[in-house]
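Project outcomes to date are best conveyed with an example. Our students and postdoctoral researchers have been running inverse folding experiments weekly, and each run begins with a structure described purely in tokens. The record below, which covers 411 residues, was selected by the lab manager from last quarter's runs and is presented without edits.
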């Protein structure tokens, strides 16, 4: 058993459901708390200086020394399995080239596709293992990883097999998402419909048969896949038993958020340009908004309307969107600060966004996302006294001690 005592403030959402509206800002705050962990699960939590029953039998005692404790962070949107980098695009962006301009010129996603196709599975695995180690050091204990840089049968499956190996090899939870419909590959130029057909008939069945992903995603956007094509892809995935999410309304509002509501998607992601129709559909269907402030910052775009979404009853999650082009940062702490300053979310709302709502986005809410008796013991002791300090500081790693599945993985 592990006993963690002298926690200054233990702050956590409660329950295994997506928190929306006023619930988004509801956190429990226990002072002078203690947590008893047994066999990887939280056995008991106490406060006001009391120790849990059985604390005297703990083999390991960890003194939190008055620090803040929260659930382990969950990054519910990343593209971390990729070949190469794209630092060469920065001069183009500084000269005014937009995301779609670079994509149409053969750069952007397509540049990474070439480098990912050229990389071996082992090279991608080793590179991604390094990313997971860095994330863990920042207090992230679970992460989603999308494919989408192969854009053909062989290389999409290669990325997903890397995800499966990561889940087996690393201490972190790695949730795999199939995003074959991330861009139109050169082989299918001007034939987006044919490419969707190929993914549906040649790749999706293998993904399901080999259990390489639990989710399917699509980039529904101007210049990529329209609503009918996106609907076809996601409905086929649903028929095969995959849950669906959607890149929606990042650049233009073409109906992606509304489609998420129509299909009952688990989440819609980006949502910078989403308007009333899309938000109404999401709220009605309970779709989680996975917001990505780092991408808005890096691309110099506006920020998603988080406050309006919360007011409309849409559960909001915040993720890093770590990828080599539009957000080459895996620092979820930085995204939390942006959620505070740019989305104008409260510290409590931000914590909910990167814990229980993120867990719900990935289907992990039964085990993860809150600090409660019976939940898996994933938690962080921060070098901060409270959440206000954690979202106030930016650019510094405030994760002190990280505990994953009851094991101290960073002291």
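After processing, the design step wrote out the following sequence:
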């Amino acid at each position: 058993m592990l006993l963690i005592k002298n926690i200054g403030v233990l702050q956590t959402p409660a329950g295994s459901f997506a928190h929306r509206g006023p619930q988004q800002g509801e956190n429990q705050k226990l002072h002078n708390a203690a947590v008893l962990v047994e066999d990887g699960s939280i056995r008991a939590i106490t406060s006001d200086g009391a120790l849990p029953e059985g604390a005297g039998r703990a083999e390991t005692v960890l003194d939190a020394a008055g620090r803040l404790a929260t659930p382990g962070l969950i990054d519910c949107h990343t593209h971390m399995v990729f070949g190469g980098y794209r630092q060469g695009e920065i001069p183009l962006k500084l000269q005014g080239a937009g995301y779609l301009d670079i994509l149409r010129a053969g750069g952007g996603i397509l540049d990474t596709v070439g480098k990912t196709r050229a990389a071996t599975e082992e090279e991608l695995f080793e590179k991604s293992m390094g990313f997971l180690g860095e994330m863990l050091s920042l207090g992230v204990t679970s992460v989603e990883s999308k494919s989408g840089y192969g854009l053909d049968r062989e290389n999409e499956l290669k990325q997903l097999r890397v995800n499966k190996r990561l889940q087996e090899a690393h201490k972190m939870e790695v949730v795999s998402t199939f995003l074959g419909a991330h861009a139109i590959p050169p082989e299918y130029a001007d034939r987006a419909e044919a490419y969707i057909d190929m993914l549906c008939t040649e790749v999706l069945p293998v993904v399901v048969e080999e259990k390489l992903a639990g989710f399917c995603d699509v980039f529904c956007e101007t210049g990529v896949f329209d609503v009918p094509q996106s609907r076809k892809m996601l409905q086929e995935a649903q028929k095969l038993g995959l849950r669906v999410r959607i890149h929606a309304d990042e650049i233009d509002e073409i109906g992606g958020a509304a489609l998420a509501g129509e299909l009952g998607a688990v989440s819609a992601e980006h949502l910078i340009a989403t308007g009333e129709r899309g938000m109404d559909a999401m709220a009605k269907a309970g779709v989680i908004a996975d917001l990505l402030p780092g991408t808005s910052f890096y691309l110099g775009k506006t920020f998603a309307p988080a406050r309006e979404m919360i007011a409309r009853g849409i559960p909001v999650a915040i993720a890093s969107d770590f990828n080599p082009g539009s957000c080459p940062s895996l620092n979820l702490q930085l995204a939390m600060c942006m959620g505070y300053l740019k989305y104008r979310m409260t510290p409590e709302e931000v914590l909910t966004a990167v814990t229980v709502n993120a867990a719900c986005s990935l289907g992990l809410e039964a085990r993860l996302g809150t600090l409660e008796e019976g939940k898996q013991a994933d938690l962080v002791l921060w070098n901060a006294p409270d959440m206000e300090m954690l979202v106030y500081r930016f650019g510094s790693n405030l994760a002190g001690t990280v505990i994953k599945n009851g094991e101290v993985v960073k002291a």
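The chain has a mean pLDDT of 96. The longest helix spans residues 192-209. The training component of this project remains on track.
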